[in-house]
Amino acid sequence: MITKIGHVDMEPPQVMAIFSDISNWPRWMPGIRRTRTLNRSENAARIALDQSFRGREYYQELDCRFSHNQVELRQHKGSLRRWDCNWRFSTPPDGLGTTITSELEIELGGMMGLLAGRRMLNQFLEQTFRDTLRRLEQRGRSQAPAAAIQIPPEQDIILQIFETGQELELWFDGRIYRLKAV
Q1: pTM value?
Q2: Three-state secondary structure call for residue 164
Q3: What's the CA dihedral at 98, 19, 30, 103 to 10 degrees?
Q4: Contact criterion met (CB below 8 Å) for 46 and 38
Q5: Burial level of 8, CB count in 10 A (0-12/13-18/19+)?
Q6: Which residues of 24-37 are buried (b: 16+ CB within 10 A; e: fewer)?
Q7: Residue 70, strand partner residues
Q8: 3-state helix, strand, coil in the chain (%, to 5)
Q9: 21 sits in which H/E element
């Protein structure tokens, strides 16, 4: 099992809301190009993902379970022999933000299993985890009400720009504009 632990400056309910909004994963989760919900109940879903990694496209179906502080993802169909990931969200002892724990069980199959060493896989997962936390915080800020953002009295925010996967999101004058990356 590979465990990663990090912190974001958002409250656990906001983190959970962003994680459980499957249709918006491509806007902030690294490598996810498209999601489709195949079926969904109140606390569970089966989803299809189109992903890209180093110029290659991958398809994966996941079974997802949601609780008040956890998201469990299990590969149902895909190019990996096994892929199970648990994301847990908790309030740290100081009460500020959210501690995020990711536990991943992964078994590579086929050529990926032969070519990818454990060290290379761990480096990739560390970078992906850090990118996920950074983009999660960007997503949280983009959803925050303007009143929650601390703006010095002598300044106004007139433009906000967020990187969201394959595009840039520009927030200007109460409108959202999306620019595709070339």
Answers
A1: 0.68
A2: strand
A3: 60
A4: yes
A5: buried
A6: bbbbbbbbbeebee
A7: 67, 88
A8: 25, 45, 25
A9: none
Residue bearing tokens 């990694």: 53
What residues contact residue 105 under an 8 Å CB cut-off, 6+ apart?
1, 2, 82, 83, 84, 85
DSSP assignment letter at 30 = T
Which residues are CB-contacts of 140 (< 8 A; sequence separation ≥ 6)?
Answer: 8, 10, 14, 15, 18
pLDDT digits (tens, 9 = 90+) for 7-24: 999 999 889 888 888 888
Question: Tokens at residue 136, please?
Answer: 């999660």
Q: 110 pLDDT exceeds 60? A: no
Query: What value does the CA radius of gyration of the chain take, rounded to a whole number of Å?
Result: 18
pLDDT of residue 114: 46
Cα dihedral sign, 44-28-52-176: positive
Other C-beta atoms closer than 10 Å to the C-beta of 39 total 9
Q: Give the contacts of 66 (CB within 8 A, at least 6 positions apart).
A: 16, 19, 20, 43, 44, 45
Four-point Cα dihedral 90, 91, 94, 95, nearest 10: 170
